[in-house]
TrEMBL record:
Keyword field: Fatty acid metabolism, Isomerase, Lipid metabolism
Organism annotation: Tricholomella constricta
Pathway(s) this gene product operates in, as recorded in its UniProt entry: Lipid metabolism; fatty acid beta-oxidation
Name of the protein described by the UniProt record: Uncharacterized protein
One BP term from GO: fatty acid beta-oxidation
Amino acid sequence: MANFSTQWIKVSEPSPHVFHVELARDPVNAFSSEYWREYGRLFETLTKTHASGTDIRAVVISSVFPKIFTAGLDLKSATDLGSSTSDTSQDSARASLAMRKVLVEFQQAINAPERCPFPVIVALHGPVIGLGVDLMSACDVRYAASNASFSIKEVDIGLAPDIGTLAHLPKITGNLSLVRELTYTARYFSAAEAEKLGLVSKVVDGGRDAVVAAALELGKVIASKSPVAVASAKHLITHARDHSVAENLAYTGAWNAAALMTKDISENMRAMKAKDRPRFAALGISSKL
């Protein structure tokens, strides 16, 4: 396996086709500008290597620190970001466009998991603050330890969330009243309330170890399925979120007209008849071909 680990991110393959991405910036996983760029580049690299034949079928994101997932944005980095884009020699329009360029890059980095062709599962525990909510919102599946707590913290700093939370949460949950309350107040809410809100799909009793184990087990189950079917499903679910029912049905018809040609269907039939485990080819095209 190629070494995908970086300065603050550890990458391993604990089971076949399941990659584990561990966030590891001391002491509390606060995101500096270098850190969020590193995070975005990692997922871009995983996507590119997947396309060239690396058989990635699921990714699990977690924190290496037992007591916290992330403290959110590094406040010193946030201050530096503001000062670096406030060139007094430029007029306000140019300064604003410079700031927008950085914010769009930031959004692209944190939302990179949504663009991956494979599912991304996030295992949450301890405090998940500010940017942590942006990060988790861009993942396919969210599991939380029972000790997890969350805060959409940006209003306490003096700004509206701008990296993904407000784009995703109204579509993740049907309780827009609670989304507004949590955003306006920045109050902490529990894993149980996150599950009630629909922000997480499962609460695992315990802390980091328990929720990471559950997320990795889910990754193994997903990795056992047809890569064509799973990648297609991810793509079509995201399309359905952003389009009408009629538009999605028409698009799905066009998509599956090609996807149904997969050999994975006959392989599933063979495995069921033989009471065997199906063996699927990698979804990407090998660079050796």
